[in-house]
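Researcher: Re-running this chain for the archive, since the previous output was lost when a drive failed. Same request as before.
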Amino acid sequence: MMNATPEVLSLDALAPGEVGYIRRLEGGRGFMSRIATLGFTVGAEVRMVQNYGRGPLIVMVRDSRVALGRGEAAKILVSKGEHV
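Model: Regenerated structure tokens:
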């Protein structure tokens, strides 16, 4: 029997080309406000564009390319696969 709960991981764990769906955002009020303004909301699709394993990464969210620091990306939790 398959596990119905998708695995949740931080955004910085996605490889270039992988797609994730935002499940949870962690952080203070300022971070949450800023990140929501950029389009990072629960349920949104995020596609990793560039992730070298260190330094900033680039993602596509709501038809916009956004650069994030590793610390910011670690606070965005996503699941791979089908949208739930």
